[in-house]
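[step 3/7] inverse_fold.run input=structure_tokens len=150
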């Protein structure tokens, strides 16, 4: 299994995987910067993406094909995305989920009120009209400065 930056050639396979798991594809960006795929035998078996909104990121489209689950692929995808976000100055990563709140809470994402989400992220298609209002909103603080007294 290999994790790589998503390529334009993978777009049809990415859309197919997302649709097979009933995830939105209509607002998938044309340019997949910040998106990563997990491949096995040349096939896309996992996907995760980060959309940038100023200093904030919106994690979207995280999925692993059912035949490849419980192999640590999701964990590797999330770690890759978080490393990318940190290296690119993302302060907070937000996400919306109807099914994976428990998973992401184990990864240090915390539930937040929709009203506390920055306006830039609220204006995204994913936040404003693609995901239902019933979806949980979560955030992970990426750049937390901790002062330790001498």
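[step 3/7] decode complete -> sequence:
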């Amino acid at each position: 299994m290999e994790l790589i930056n998503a390529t334009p050639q993978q777009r049809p396979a990415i859309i197919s995987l997302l649709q097979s798991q009933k995830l939105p594809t209509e607002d998938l960006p044309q340019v997949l910067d910040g998106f990563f795929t997990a491949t096995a035998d040349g096939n896309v078996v996992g996907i995760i993406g980060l959309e940038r909104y100023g200093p904030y990121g919106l994690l979207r489209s995280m999925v692993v094909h059912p035949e490849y689950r419980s192999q640590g692929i999701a964990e590797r995808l999330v770690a890759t995305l978080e490393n990318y976000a940190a290296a690119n100055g993302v302060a907070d990563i937000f996400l919306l989920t109807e099914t994976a709140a428990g998973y992401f809470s184990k990864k240090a994402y915390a539930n937040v009120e929709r009203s506390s989400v920055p306006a830039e992220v609220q204006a995204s298609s994913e936040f404003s009209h693609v995901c239902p209002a019933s979806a949980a909103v979560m955030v992970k603080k990426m750049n937390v400065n901790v002062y330790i007294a001498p």
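[step 4/7] annotate
Strands lie at 2-5, 35-40, 43-53, 56-64, 92-97, 110-111, 136-141.
The CA atoms of residues 16 and 87 lie 30 Å apart.
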